[in-house]
Amino acid sequence: MKRKFLYILFLLLSQFSFSQNKLSWQGYFSFNEVKDISESSTAVFAASENALFTKDATTNTTKTITTVDGLSGQTISAMHYSETFKKTIVGYENGLMIVINEADGSMLKVVDIINKQLAPNLKKINHFMEHNGLVYVSCDFGIVQFNLTTLKFGDTYFIGDNGAEISVKQTTFFNGFIYAATSSGIRSADIANPNLNDFKQWSVVNTGDWSSVESLDAELIAINSSGYIHRFNTNNFVGFSQLPQASVDMRAKNHNLFITIKNAVYVYSNQMVLIRQISNAQVLDNTINFTCATSVGNVIFIGTKEKGLFSSSLSSSSAFVNSTPSGPARNNIFSMDVTPSVLWTVYGDYDTYYNPYDLDSYGVSKYNTSGWLNISYSDVYNAKSMTRVIVNPKNEKQVYASSFFSGLLRIENDVPNLLYNEKNSGLESITTEGPNYIDVRINATAFDKAGNLWVTNSRIKNGLKVLKTNGQWGSYAMTSILDDAQASSYSSILVDKNSVKWIGTNRDGVVGFNETNNTFKKMTFGADAGNLPVADVRALAIDTKNQLWIGTTKGLRVLSNVGNFQNDSQLKANPIIIMEDNLAQELLYEQFITTIAVDGANNKWIGTSDSGVFMVSPNGQETKYHFTNSNSPLPSNAINDIKINSTTGEVFIATNKGLISFGGIATEANEDLSNVYVYPNPVRPTYSGTVKVAGLLDKANIKITDIEGNLVYETTSEGGTIEWDTTAFGKYKVSSGVYMIFISAQDGGETKVKKVMIIR
After folding, report:
1. Does the pLDDT of residue 16 top 50, yes or no?
2. pLDDT value of position 746
3. How many angstroms separate the CA atoms of 339 and 738, rounded?
């Protein structure tokens, strides 16, 4: 049994990439939306929204680069690989450039374009063109020259009329001239001219709005914004072929020209003879949209907006293969649930006012030791806007996903098998839009200790529902406690140890409900009505001391004891007052709090709408971490959800631009000491992290001695795990040898002894 437990533990630690570094991060990014591609003689380089991946055509290996490695969480708009300089250049919509050195993986962030005194919406990088050690960066204001040797910017070319800013989509070099496709004509200049920063040196070759220009051996090709392909005839561009749609990309590679429109790729020879046409239905189906295409040797690679990168033989019509690293369906993960062995995510959304009408169709995703499983929109009965997902704690193979438009989806053994809606359950559609309008808004869900599933049903009178273990539905009216139940939406629901349900609302603060005596109580805005800073509550969490932490759109409040529900006629929450710069201040004053999670040591992980993540001590008096996209791998400061793996302590943080995790060690306390373990063990000379002792009781006493009985460390656990930095009370590193770990419960009724070997 013990060996089986350790084997499961190893799988869990491997699965969730628990690092031996205290400040460790792991990325779980989607690579499905390919923004741009580049290539070397042996590999293709692809950029998704805010991550990169490389596919080596010779070894068939894939490598990924994310914010954990140093990329920005901003949206990528262009990329280029320089085979001569062995560098990858990444361009962003906000004007940021990152240069990645292939030799050592180092990254240089170049902010010159960001710092230009220009309107922010003009700084987008559209294209890179390399020529003689220089990269010409096409931007929405003009062209910037970047030196690949010095890694410094050179001149900036404002080539619009009278030197005005102009959007440059693409540049190319042809017969000694640089050509630029712009929103106001194709413009050219002698590349040897030392005064290219003088707009007068640029000539207008053709007027009009142009999307691309590219040189193909002896040909110079341009496409205008309506999709008309033109050929240069030494004086100007002459149209010769009309595409069925506007082009989204054009590039030359290996004497071929690849022109991409949303539903097809056209491959031309260097004589501009069409040699192959590939439709999206040939690659996968007619629902996908192409974004770009290129080739490496005889392999064609096509990027898509929804399904990543596909590859096939260029010279034959063999089947296309998906070459995308596994990941969630998209980066904007709205909510998730985490157990010791599985992670579920959903992608639905609503705005600040609970408007779900930007309805998504992304389905549901699962992550475990087998990797990612993405369940498609069609497989979830076309349920839209999935906003919550919950795993049945009594049956991990049963999962429920809330749709904020279509009802409640049941998934069993990874297969959706029932969509509860207004026709087959106690769930109800909103009625304020007329009798024929169907809109079943299910959001927050929670299981009670008996295994019943409590469900919030927004914008109706009977907004609290329960799906009982026998399959029957129960319904509770909210009209007695809410000012206007048919206008109310619900953000969250919890069930405490006394089976009281706590519900976050958008108009009436927090509602508590005891089904035993059918009692409702609420805390809302105002000192005499509950003392919340605002009535709009977005997050709830109950900690190990039975305190209810309440996140609102205007700050944080704490109810000191959920057990007061029965006795207090008016429940009252209070702010946490901290000292900062010798001034008393309210913790997270005015912050829009989106989510709260409690780890095994009773620390609080608090997500905000625009300020990142705060990790505070159990009483909130100490902010231990404040992670943002500036000081951590967070891809965005807009936090959608936080969940914690109770076994490993790993903290999963979902943002609107990607999912990452922080390798915490605060695990939940165990009921006994039968499963205590130590890792790593042995501690090898190359290891620089801490030793963890896990599987502990809360408030257990831990003493570590050398083999002769000399005490080198002592502590009391908070939760299920402690760390030892392998020093003698922080003074010096202990020497090689076997060290004894003596563990005893707080009352002394249970003890355990473990050993760890340290090799220096």
Report:
1. no
2. 87
3. 34
Which position has the token pair 């509602």?
511
**Structure token pair of residue 153:** 């910017």
**Residue 249: strand pairing partners:** 260
Residue 3 has pLDDT above 80, yes or no: no
pTM summary value: 0.88
d(CA 414, CA 605): 29
CA atoms within 13 A on the CB side of 257: 24
Backbone dihedral angles phi then psi of residue 291, each to the nearest 5 degrees: -120, -30
Q: List, for residues 714-742, the tens digit of each pLDDT value.
A: 999 888 888 899 999 988 999 999 999 99
Q: Is the pLDDT of residue 332 over 80?
A: yes
Q: What are phi and psi of 705, to 5 degrees?
A: -130, 160
Distance CA 614, CA 332 (A): 20
CB-based burial, 136-167: b 16+ in 10 Å, e otherwise: bbbbbbbbbbbebeeeebeebbbbbeeeeebb
As a whole number of angstroms, the distance between CA 38 and CA 21 comes to 34
Measured CA to CA, the distance from residue 728 to residue 711 in angstroms comes to 8
Q: Are 281 and 289 in contact (CB under 8 A)?
A: no
Looking at the predicted structure, is the pLDDT value of residue 661 above 70? yes
Specify the pLDDT at position 74.
95
Domains along the chain with CATH numbers: 121-242 (2.130.10.10), 677-758 (2.60.40.3110)
Q: Are 65 and 81 in contact (CB under 8 A)?
A: no
Does the structure show a pLDDT above 60 at 10? no
Tell me: pLDDT of 423 over 60. yes
Q: Which residues make Cβ contacts (< 8 Å) with residue 38, sequence separation at least 6?
A: 44, 45, 79, 80, 81, 88, 294
| Dihedral of the alpha carbons of 729, 732, 737, 743, in degrees to the nearest 10 | 10
Examine the pLDDT at 12 and tell me if it is beyond 70: no
DSSP code per residue over 734-756: --SEEEEEEEE-TTSS-EEEEEE
Mean pLDDT, range 465-486, rounded to an integer: 96
Find out whether 145 and 134 touch, Cβ atoms under 8 Å.
Answer: yes
Q: What is the pLDDT of residues 129-169, one digit of tens each?
A: 999 999 999 999 999 999 999 999 999 999 999 999 999 99
Q: Which two tokens stand for residue 562?
A: 């959920």
Strands ordered across the beta sheet of 548-552: 537-542, 548-552, 555-559
Helix (H) and strand (E) counts in the chain: 2, 64
- Which residue do the tokens 């619009």 mark? 160
Q: How far apart are CA 278 and CA 261, in angstroms?
A: 10
| CB atoms inside a 10 Å sphere around CB 633 | 21
At residue 11, the pLDDT reads 34
Spatial CB neighbours of 239, under 8 Å, sequence gap ≥ 6: 224, 228, 229, 230, 231
The one-letter amino acid code at 276 reads: R
Q: How many CB atoms lie within 10 A of CB 504?
A: 25
**Structural element, H or E, at residue 623:** strand 623-627
CB 645 within 8 A of CB 652: yes
Measure Cα distances from 353 to 348, 396, 490, 584, 611 in Å.
Answer: 15, 33, 11, 33, 20
What are residue 206's phi and psi, to 5 degrees? -135, 145
